[in-house]
């Protein structure tokens, strides 16, 4: 019998074009996703060297980072406008399919790929965006690349890549009521830090991971990069197959069944060996809130901001002090005493239909706190339409939320959605870096449910006190 | 790309861990469609107040580091966003070498595409460099061929993948190199796509 293999081995071996001692492998790329921010210099590079896009049929572009989420066609920032126009011109010139601002498929690149069925198990997927790890939820090997590599993939449909090490993150048990996929990944990063995944591909395994829906798995894999891993994935199973059935770019009928079996066979074999394995138990995970300026700086909602004076000499005391100062907090302050002015529900981490549904369950019948400006930004036009079809927009609007058009929005403030200096935002996005949501802005990362509850109360609260969050009411 | 074989320069120490690419170059500067001219925005919000005036409390603004071309940083340098604008800004500002105890993967790769040499060295070596360069002018010599960093008194060797090393030493256009494998890519595609019903987008 052959040696048990991980899913990473299986995908990798199928995609090696050229192999040589002492060199990275030349790896074939199945799907290249493109957006307006990291592609202009790549297309320009092709033009200067008179090169073509090798496989426009394996390339798909959209606009997401810059797009306004209200007054859709009023792009005040002329530089943003030029960048979007440049993508349009580049796609026309090189024959790349584009879901531009008016296209029904437009949305955040990591929301539309899976939703259209472009993302499939076993594929190698790249995009000039670090959150490409999201697509790993399907058992694809998906990772972010720089603009030079974007140009390389456009020209050659391949990349030179050293075979990565593998890291298993195994979560036993069942997540408690009111504890989400976002809390799971934040708790993992909170425990193991922002660089334990460097040089590795993470595979998430265990009962708690198996029980996640596809959209929850995307939330987990999305934040692999916040642990340092370029890619994070989950072996395909029936949940994966059922999610993809009927998607636009997936075959139908018997062809689908054949493909589905191939997908299931990709799952890591029993006894496969990882370079490293980390364990956690779902019982240990509670709703999380970040207090600092990187995603590992998080604690359970019932806890307190850490005290640098109580830290060991081997810990990053300077970093913690600087984070507390930037965030305008006090050591030992309870998380539930932190008042907020903004709530952002959206981003490639948490803007899918199930995220909006869960937030709406908390919001239903409530009222946004008078000190809070709260926005909901669906991840794509089709998510927005689906949410409206079931009346979620009405729930949010009635409660005093704004209901916006699809885009990256306040996750990175490259558009009009910005948190002002010194103000505080409960955000369902993925990065709480200094200035991420606006210069001087203070970001606290949370789940959609926790963000919804914070919007109503004007401060962080344990969402488990809401019956709707724990399966009651 | 400019080849890099040997570099001697003044060290600038940035004693912070987890310096993310949002700090290296903030998002408002990612809207430009050019590849050049990002140096003026390097560490923008650390270097400048909101009104554009210089922040005296940020070390890179200290005139003694004006001609620095070697940046020494903390653990996990370049984490976060994949934006290649980060190495573009570092290179355009005048840095050719970045030394740290560890780098984020995407940033590390991006450096080699832009003629920047990222060097991983043990914590204690980096700490010593931080200390020495924060008081007096401190110069390092970097010999990529021999894989050695020296400050005149002591020297330390570093690891680098031979592929990365060759690319920097020769200043290769990586796409041109890959295109010499075009026939292999053609052949791979032919076998790979045999019998495949849908490619995804067609």
Polypeptide structure, described:
The complex is a heterodimer of chains A (473) and B (202). By secondary structure, chain A is of the alpha/beta class. Chain A has helices at 7-15, 40-48, 78-94, 109-116, 147-156, 181-192, 207-210, 214-222, 238-244, 253-265, 317-327, 353-363, 381-389, 392-399, 448-457; strands at residues 16-18, 25-28, 31-34, 59-62, 97-99, 124-127, 141-144, 158-161, 165-172, 200-205, 231-233, 276-281, 288-290, 298-300, 342-345, 373-376, 402-403, 424-427, 442-445. Chain A folds into 2 domains: 7-277, Aconitase, domain 3, CATH 3.30.499; 288-470, Aconitase, domain 3, CATH 3.30.499. Chain A has 15 helices and 19 strands. In chain A, strands 5-4-3-6-7 form a 5-stranded parallel β-sheet, covered by helices on one side. A 5-stranded parallel β-sheet of chain A has the order 17-16-15-18-19. A 4-stranded parallel β-sheet of chain A has the order 11-10-9-12. In chain A, helix 2 (40-48) packs across helix 5 (147-156), helix 6 (181-192) runs parallel beside helix 8 and helix 12 (353-363) crosses helix 14. Chain B is α/β, with parallel strands linked by helices and 202 residues long. Chain B has one domain: Aconitase, domain 4. The radius of gyration of chain B is 19 Å and the shape is globular. Classes of the chains: A alpha/beta (473), B alpha/beta (202). The interface between A and B is large, with 81 and 57 residues.
């Amino acid at each position: 019998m052959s040696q048990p293999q991980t899913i990473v081995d299986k995908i990798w071996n199928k995609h090696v074009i050229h192999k040589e001692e002492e060199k990275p492998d030349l790896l074939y790329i199945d799907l290249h996703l493109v957006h307006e921010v990291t592609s202009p210099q790549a297309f320009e590079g092709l033009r200067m060297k008179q090169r073509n896009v090798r496989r426009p049929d394996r390339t798909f572009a959209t606009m997401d980072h810059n797009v306004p989420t209200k007054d859709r066609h009023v792009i005040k920032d002329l530089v943003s406008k030029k960048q979007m126009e440049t993508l349009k011109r580049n796609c026309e010139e090189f024959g790349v399919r584009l879901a531009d601002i008016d296209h029904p498929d437009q949305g955040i690149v990591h929301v539309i790929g899976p939703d259209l069925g472009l993302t499939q198990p076993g594929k190698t997927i790249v995009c000039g965006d670090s959150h490409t790890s999201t697509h790993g939820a399907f058992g694809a090997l998906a990772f972010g690349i720089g603009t030079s590599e974007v140009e390389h993939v456009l020209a050659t449909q391949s990349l030179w890549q050293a075979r990565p090490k593998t890291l298993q993150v195994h979560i036993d048990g069942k997540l408690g009521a009111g504890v989400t996929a976002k809390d799971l990944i934040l708790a993992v990063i909170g425990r193991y830090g922002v660089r334990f995944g460097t040089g590795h591909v993470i595979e998430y395994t265990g009962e708690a991971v198996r029980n996640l829906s596809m959209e929850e798995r995307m939330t987990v894999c999305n934040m692999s990069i916040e642990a340092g891993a370029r890619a994070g994935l989950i072996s395909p199973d029936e949940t994966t197959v059922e999610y993809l059935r009927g998607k636009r770019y997936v075959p139908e009928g018997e062809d689908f069944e054949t493909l589905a079996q191939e997908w299931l066979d990709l799952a890591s074999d029993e006894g496969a060996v990882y370079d490293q394995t980390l364990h956690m138990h779902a019982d240990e995970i509670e709703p999380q809130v970040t207090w600092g300026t990187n995603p590992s700086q998080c604690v359970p909602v019932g806890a307190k901001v850490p005290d640098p004076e109580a830290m060991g000499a081997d810990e990053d005391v300077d970093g913690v002090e600087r984070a507390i100062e930037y965030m305008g907090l006090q050591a030992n302050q309870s998380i539930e005493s932190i008042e907020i002015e903004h709530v952002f529900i959206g981003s490639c981490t948490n803007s899918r239909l199930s995220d909006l549904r869960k937030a709406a369950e908390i919001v239903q019948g409530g009222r946004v706190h008078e000190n809070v400006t709260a926005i909901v930004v669906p991840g794509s036009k089709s998510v927005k339409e689906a949410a409206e079809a079931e009346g979620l927009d009405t729930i949010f609007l009635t409660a005093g939320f704004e209901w916006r058009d699809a885009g990256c929005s306040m996750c990175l403030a490259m558009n009009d959605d910005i948190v002002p200096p010194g103000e505080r935002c409960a955000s369902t996005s993925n990065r709480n870096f200094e200035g991420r949501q606006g210069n001087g802005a203070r970001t606290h990362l949370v789940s959609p449910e926790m963000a919804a509850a914070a919007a109503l109360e004007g401060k962080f609260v344990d969402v488990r006190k809401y019956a709707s969050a724990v399966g009651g009411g | 790309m400019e080849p890099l074989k040997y570099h001697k320069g003044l060290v600038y120490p940035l004693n912070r861990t987890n310096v993310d690419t949002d700090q290296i170059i903030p998002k408002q500067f990612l809207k430009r469609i050019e590849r050049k001219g990002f140096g003026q925005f390097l560490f923008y919000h650390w270097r400048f107040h909101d009104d554009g005036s210089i922040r005296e409390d940020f070390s890179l603004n200290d005139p003694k580091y004006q001609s620095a071309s070697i940046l020494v940083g903390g653990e996990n340098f370049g984490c976060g966003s994949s934006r290649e604008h980060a190495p573009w800004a570092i290179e355009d500002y005048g840095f050719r070498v970045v030394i740290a105890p560890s780098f984020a993967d995407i940033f590390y790769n991006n450096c080699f595409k832009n003629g920047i040499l990222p060097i991983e060295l043990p914590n204690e070596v980096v700490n010593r460099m931080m200390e020495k360069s924060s008081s007096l002018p401190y110069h390092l010599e970097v010999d990529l061929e021999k894989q050695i960093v020296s400050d005149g008194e002591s020297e330390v060797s570093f690891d680098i993948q031979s592929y990365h090393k060759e690319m920097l030493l020769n200043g290769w256009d990586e796409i041109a190199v890959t295109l010499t494998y075009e026939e292999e890519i053609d052949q791979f595609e032919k076998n790979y796509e045999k019998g495949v019903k849908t490619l995804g987008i067609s």
